[in-house]
Amino acid sequence: MAPEVLYAIFIHLKCDIDTPFTHLLRVSWVCRYWRTVVLGRSSLWDSLSIISPKCSHIEMASLWLHRGRPMLVDIYLENNDSSARDAFSGLLSIVADHSSRLKSIAIVSTVDISVPRQYSRPLAPAKHLREVRINCANMTPTVRDYVVGFIQSSQLTSLVMSQLFAGMDGVSCITPSFATLLELVCGFDVHMTQILAELPAIRSLELDVFGASLGSALGEKEKVELPILELSITGNDESKCSFLRRVVCPQLETFRVNKGVDQTLKIDALSSFICASGRVLKGLYVTLGEDTPHRFKLRSLFRDLPALEILHLSCPGEVCWDRMHYEFLPNLTELHYGQQLPSSLGTVIALGLPTARLRSLRIDGPVVRFEETLKHLISTCSGLRALSITLCPNTHLAVFLSAISLCGTWDHLTTLCITVEDATSIIRHLLRFPWCLSSLRTLEIHSESIDIYRAQKLEEIRELKVEICGFNR
């Protein structure tokens, strides 16, 4: 059998989710020819993934790593079974023996784990390690020391941890290893903000912040300047806003604030950060909470964002809008509004949007009395490519689609996504006037009631990708 054929078979064996590495080890024992083929292909030995390990896997994993020498390897270990705790600890010990060959390591466990004390530090420097992901239910001292040993790698570029060691003596010894770190994802104590100043190469931060209140925020002169391009933060409002008051990111291009931010003091912290860090900001994703002040003006978030291209905004319908919001956003190309619109907002958007540049518009909440305004919006947004809306039950769908057709924008619109209770009339309209789909390439219809026969007919339209969800049979 040709080596290429054998290699294809061995690749298939490696993809076995249950016991991928045991199959290849057995193959290497069949005959000298098979052994030569399987050991001569580095791609067969460059990764090891074990989920819910057994005690028998310890010796097999050791043999696997020995077979693959001297190639670098990616390792993924996961355990969700308390009865496999000993086997998991044994695998961690085996990995420590081969630390100098690691390219990446991921350790995921929903149960408590431990490491034999003699293996609490890797036996050799993990000098080739680029990526570390640690997500453990409980960090015992030996596991913590084990992790620190891997983090002390001069080539580390990505670190994902359930929690960065707050108040840990080892912080001072691992920070020199962060000199090449590009990405950090972790639970983060706000009181450790100063450590971020020791990350000269950092470009992406995703933090679940905790441990501070607005009253403990540092002063302006103590702010930490970060060279990051992407920032995403979650956590309680006090911790998020305390963190934002402590940092400034002049090169920031993408900013995400997950979970609601409300109340004037907290919004002021968010607004001040955006104003100080938003000169080159291109993507802004913000969720405002239900307690946002009724008279709050969203323009305070958009005061100085000349480069903003993508805005994803979710806020209560009572928040005051006016056309001034968008005059600060001359380059906006994508707008995603994540909640129900006030009944008067349609006209406001139509008047205030930078319509010539807008390419994508998505409105998640039901649109109230929006037919004529949307018709005007689409007629003025000559470059609109993607439209996603949720319509109220009383919306006349056929009238709505006719309005879109008459606007003449089907020549540009390539993606249409509509969510509605009953989509029968929309499908009937598209089947009656198929020329409306002349340039449409993707159509998504989310509905609780759809005529299955007409839906199948619509799917038969040539070159149209149709996704219809939730229809009744």
UniProtKB/TrEMBL annotation:
Organism: Paramarasmius palmivorus
Domain of life: Eukaryota
Protein name according to UniProt: F-box domain-containing protein
SUPFAM superfamilies: F-box domain (SSF81383), RNI-like (SSF52047)
Listed InterPro entries: F-box-like_dom_sf, LRR_dom_sf
Coiled coil regions, renumbered to chain: none
Residues spanning the signal sequence: none
Lineage, uppermost ranks: Eukaryota, Fungi, Dikarya, Basidiomycota, Agaricomycotina
